[in-house]
Design goal:
By secondary structure, the chain is an all-alpha fold. It folds into 2 domains: 1-91, DnaA protein, C-terminal DNA-binding domain (Chromosomal Replication Initiator Protein Dnaa, Chain: A, Orthogonal Bundle), CATH 1.10.1750; 109-163. It has 7 helices and no strands. The chain has helices spanning 2-14, 20-24, 30-45, 51-57, 62-78, 80-108, 127-162. Helix 1 (2-14) crosses helix 3 (30-45) and helix 4 (51-57) crosses helix 5. The longest helix has 36 residues, at 127-162. 20% of the residues are buried.
């Protein structure tokens, strides 16, 4: 279930001690509240889940989820500590999502990350991603050139066999 996975990942970013079961309780501890709010925000913003579905998973009313979702936007502006927690958590989701997309794209080309001599785990978000995209582009250009040459040879062969 996507909600459980997201909640678990948020918990692991906020505190080692937190678990999904803690987010479902009525705890008023700061880390629990922050993790719950961030999970609400990610589930709504990135996965477009309805407030009612999010709320039912966390044993909360949809209005509570809506209020928390809106409060995250204010907290990001005014609460530096919350913003740091939020940015670290959300950045990890973007990075993971980008890595998954790249891996899926590589599978479509029947090549692997090892073939490109790049390790996803050690990729710097900007430079590593850029280097990987350069290698993919070079691979694509070589593949296109190979296909074009094959088409030329096929045309030449057809002319030879027709004569």
């Amino acid at each position: 279930m996507i909600i459980n996975k997201i909640a678990d990942k948020v918990c692991s970013h906020i505190s080692i001690k937190l678990g999904v079961k803690d987010l479902k309780k009525d705890s008023r501890l700061r880390d629990v509240i922050d993790a719950r709010r961030i999970a609400y925000y990610i589930l709504r913003e990135k996965y477009n889940l309805p407030y009612a579905s999010i709320g039912s998973f966390f044993n909360k009313d949809h209005a509570t989820v809506l209020h928390s979702y809106k409060s995250v936007k204010d907290l990001i502006k005014y609460d530096i500590i919350f913003k740091e927690k939020f940015d670290a958590c959300v950045d990890s989701f973007y990075k993971e999502k980008d890595e998954i997309k790249l891996i899926e794209a590589l599978k479509d080309f029947k090549i692997s990350v090892e073939d490109l001599d790049v390790k996803i785990d050690s990729m710097d978000k900007n430079t590593g991603l850029y280097e990987l995209l350069k290698k993919i582009t070079k691979f694509n250009n070589n593949l296109i050139e190979l296909i074009n040459n094959q088409a030329k040879f096929q045309d030449q062969w057809e002319k030879i066999t027709q004569d």
